[in-house]
Amino acid sequence: xxxxxxxxxxxxxxxxxxxxxxxxxxxxxxxxxxxxxxxxxxxxxxxxxxxxxxxxxxxxxxxxxxxxxxxxxxxxxxxxxxxxxxxxxxxxxxxxxxxxxxxxxxxxxxxxxxxxxxxxxxxxxxxxxxxxxxxxxxxxxxxxxxxxxxxxxxxxxxxxxxxxxxxxxxxxxxxxxxxxxxxxxxxxxxxxxxxxxxxxxxxxxxxxxxxxxxxxxxxxxxxxxxxxxxxxxxxxxxxxxxxxxxxxxxxxxxxxxxxxxxxxxxxxxxxxxxxxxx
Amino acid sequence: xxxxxxxxxxxxxxxxxxxxxxxxxxxxxxxxxxxxxxxxxxxxxxxxxxxxxxxxxxxxxxxxxxxxxxxxxxxxxxxxxxxxxxxxxxxxxxxxxxxxxxxxxxxxxxxxxxxxxxxxxxxxxxxxxxxxxxxxxxxxxxxxxxxxxxxxxxxxxxxxxxxxxxxxxxxxxxxxxx
Lengths: 278, 178
Prior knowledge:
The complex is a heterodimer of chains A (278) and B (178). With 278 residues, chain A is α/β, with parallel strands linked by helices. Chain A has ten helices and eight strands. Chain A has a single domain (28-273), classed as Rossmann fold. In chain A, helix 9 (233-241) links the parallel strand 7 (223-224) and strand 8. Chain A is globular and about 60 Å long. Chain A starts with 27 loop residues before the first helix and ends with a helix. Chain B has helices at 16-43, 47-70, 105-129, 133-157.
């Protein structure tokens, strides 16, 4: 018999915390959480060598549900926190979780500059095109004609195109997944972690409470990207500019070297205090 | 729920160990998924449905134990061989998107029935396609086990009347922006 001793030493459940998720039943974020756990098991990363950093929003609850180091930060600042952590502790695998409001609006500027710096982070944005936690306001990725009592007639605003922005700003890995495909999202996260530099994974994750129409619709709309991944930014730009928003898979994998300043040795808390001396 | 008549791609197994690895992973995944759904329902105060999902999780865990016992010779140090966690969901894993915080017992059991039926089709397809007679026999046995689960769920379903039309009416709905 073909046996592999020691295989599957870590299981997805080993990365599950004892905290029960409060997301609505049916929410795509439940599936993304499983994808996180499966990816970490596939990567065989010891929990103590992983940190999950987040901002604010439904999606940003993920650190509490994940059995590794975590930090549930302030709104839009997950990438700033993660950047500091990775610079100080390059030995850690740092994943960053966000949503379309937290990541592209409040944290939009951090997003661009995280791409530009190309620090070795994996940024996973659960995009439901709405602010779910605060009761359903339009977000940067909401369609211009999506009508609600809060936005009568729709916002009339062009949606933010995060993958295009990521490419233009220098991200080294760009992918899109759909929460309904747990294994597929896990594969993307594995690839994102394994690719050096700043990796951005947009996961379409429907909000069943405020946009239940998306639930069935996205399942039928998503499709594998019909062209293979590229390392050519110009080709990737053409692809992303003509993207229908539902191509899933790895869309760009560049060759930029990550930026990783060497942490100071023999660094003591007194050094930090001296920086704040007036 | 998607079409139960489509079991998806039929995997081929070179060894009994590989087949058991897959079968064990399917049962683990199914049990964990039901447990997670039960957690969701507990958090949202739907205790009746939480109890159903806990029961389903227990049934799947029991089935896992039975398969693990039989698979013992095919395993090394307790670890099934050749299973990747980035593979697609198993046929018995409930889809999260089919859950609703006000779902009825009937809906929960129909969800379970769908998963069991899909598992039957999956193992029947393996049994039909396997070139190794030992794998084919084991897959056929698994299909029979899953069929017995379908019948058990069917009996359970008889306890519940059809859902009323306004089963999802909520006097205090979360959507307060309308």
